[in-house]
Amino acid sequence: xxxxxxxxxxPTRTLPYGEAGVAxxxxxxxxxxxVAVPTxxxxxxxxxxxxxxxxxxxxxxxxxxxxNPLIVHVAELAAAERLAVFxxxxxxxxxxxxxxxxxxxxxxxxxxxxASLVTAGLYTIAxxxxxxxxxxxxxxxxxxxxxxxxxxxxxxxxPTRAAHVRASLxxxxxxxxxxxxxxxxxxSTIIGLAGPARLLRPGPxxxxxxxxxxxxxxxxxxDAITAPGQLAGHYAPRKSLRLNATCAEQGEWMIGFGDIxxxxxxxxxGDRIEAAARLFDALHRADASAAAxxxxxxxxxxxxxxxxxxxLARAAIR
Length: 318
Prior knowledge:
This protein is of the alpha/beta class. The chain is built from nine helices and 14 strands. Residues 1-9 have low confidence and may be disordered.
């Protein structure tokens, strides 16, 4: 089995964000290792996307199925166009939403140098330009495109804090670059553009907003796995999760929303953006509680609410 760093540290080191932390993280990646790094969505597990051994380290650390492709992060549109074939639709979306929480699945450009393991052998590549200063600093320091799925064991709750990464991957990766909590708190919207424009994963940017830029309705997801986050069971706590609960049953940790109170709340005011930012953090707290199971209040499925409900539906599958 591949390891995530040629000289792995046990336990995993925490590198505070700053010039020294970024330099240390870049050195680990240059040696073929993996480093957890915050983005505006969740913490990602970054490695050199041109290095097959480094990509294998991501899969090994996460226990991720090799048919599940990785998102490649680059610093700017020009770098993305060296890896993928853009059309007018893709350029319009990049102009509106990059840098930011939008991933596009596009035809992979021949000779890009991206390791085939990163694309899971597909003819497409998932790519985005992140906005977060830590990921942008790491991209600049490494000079490499970085493959970076969420920094957690595959199928478990996504991490929005360095502590979440440590709880899931301590001893499996070399370091965590810590720059506080992720802002959006939910993974990027993924749009497929290798054919008809298709919503592959809901996220912070709504389907309605994407359609407004493209001027066409988005097709729904296909059965084929062409992007991260399409597995039926994903983002799951260890405990069972009951959805659309209006009150807690015996032995449950209740996560409220709006007028429905509980042991915790996603947003007391019913703000879905706040709820998205707090979702995974709340699930981590619930999973760490003494309660036997978890219940969560219903979330109105408008705009980012659709992304929240997508994550919860997958998290509830046992």
